[in-house]
Design goal:
Layout lengths: L8 H9 L6 H35 L12 E6 L5 H12 L2 E4 L11 H9 L6 E4 L3 H11 L8 E6 L8 H23 L3 E5 L1
Parallel strand pairs: 1-3, 1-4, 2-3, 4-5
Helix pairs in contact: 1-2, 4-5, 5-6
């Protein structure tokens, strides 16, 4: 059984002393207790403000004109803010967001990007994001040699917003390699391509 929490010294004083006629020493101790709680409250508030500011600063800036096209693909290596940006756009624009990470473990290597390439043909408004999205775009273009991407906004996030593991850094290099190979093709097929780094 855990001890009850006390918000202020008056509760503690009543429990310890049973009355309000505490000695001066105990009263001073309780006043110090209150001061420490108030100081901790201020520290927690400052830490929460600082954490919120860091989270906001880590969010990638959306450098596209409004309104955002009906179809958006967000590519980039791990930890670049793809999911955060997709969720923000999805919430602001009332769009369905498809996360390629949901396919992890469901398909063999390479088959996940085939599945995501099929998502690109789905009707309606959507946002697709994830590390696999860049390979899916490449596969879609191979499978649709005359296909157009008019009205599709492709955002490439190139800079990690938090530290990557060595494996994530390797994956980011792979994404960058595929991106270099398809960026001009995407533009030639009518996609609005924006790189945010």
């Amino acid at each position: 059984m855990s001890a009850p929490a006390f918000a202020r010294s008056s509760d503690l004083q009543t429990l310890l002393l049973g009355s309000s006629d505490a000695s001066e020493a105990r009263a001073a101790t309780l006043a110090a207790y209150d001061a420490k709680i108030a100081h901790l409250d201020r520290l927690i508030a400052v830490a929460e403000i600082a954490a919120k500011a860091e989270r906001e600063a880590a969010k990638p800036a959306l450098v596209v004109a409004q309104p955002i096209p009906a179809r958006v693909v967000i590519v980039g290596g791990p930890r670049t803010g793809k999911t955060t940006l997709a969720i923000r756009i999805g919430a602001e624009q009332s769009r369905r967001v498809r996360h390629t990470d949901t396919l992890i473990g469901q398909f063999a290597w390479g088959k996940d990007s085939e599945e995501v390439a099929r998502w690109l043909d789905e009707p309606g408004e959507w946002i697709i994001e994830g590390v696999t999205a860049v390979r899916a775009l490449r596969k879609w273009m191979v499978n649709n040699p005359e296909g157009r991407l008019d009205g599709v906004l492709v955002i490439s996030l190139t800079k990690p917003v938090v530290t990557q593991t060595s494996g994530q850094a390797s994956a980011a290099k792979g994404v960058a390699t595929v991106w270099v190979g398809i960026e001009n093709q995407l533009r030639a097929r009518g996609a609005d391509v924006r790189e945010i780094g």
